[in-house]
Amino acid sequence: MDRWSAKTGSELPEWSKIAQYILAYILWFLFCALAFFAIWRVHTVLVEGIFFGRVDPWQLRAIDKWSLWVMGAGWVVGIFLSEGYLRKGVEKGRLLVYTGKLFLVPLIVIAVSYLIRAF
Question: Is 2 part of a structural domain of the chain?
Fold first, then answer.
């Protein structure tokens, strides 16, 4: 008698669904790294812009430290929100669409930071 033949509420999940969740968490980790790089780029552009604007060193130091705290807090919130967003993408069967939308935000931020630094 096959013990998995009966349809019950405790069936084993499909392997394709498990693979999608593993892929979602790999993409989530890559998104976290990309978002961290975007924050680093924005911080660099912000501090360099203020430095070359010849502001008071005390103001520069305060903006440098507080911008890291604020952007870091935003990064942590973004980590939690993006994880739920990608899990929802797996549940709806649209993981790649959700991933594309999610990765678009830090890529645009990085591109704008490079454009600002170029001029």
Answer: no
pLDDT attached to residue 10 = 57
68 and 43 Cβ atoms separated by less than 8 Å: yes
The per-residue pLDDT for range 55-90, each reduced to its tens digit, is 888 888 898 899 999 999 999 999 999 999 999 999
Radius of gyration of the chain from its Cα atoms, rounded to whole angstroms: 21
HSE-CB of 9 using CA atoms within 13 angstroms: 0
| Structure-block tokens of residue 55 | 């502001």
**Most distant CA atoms of the chain, gap in Å:** 81
Q: What is the pTM of this model?
A: 0.80
Residue 19 lies in a domain: no
Structure tokens at 110: 């990085």
Residue 51 lies in a domain: yes
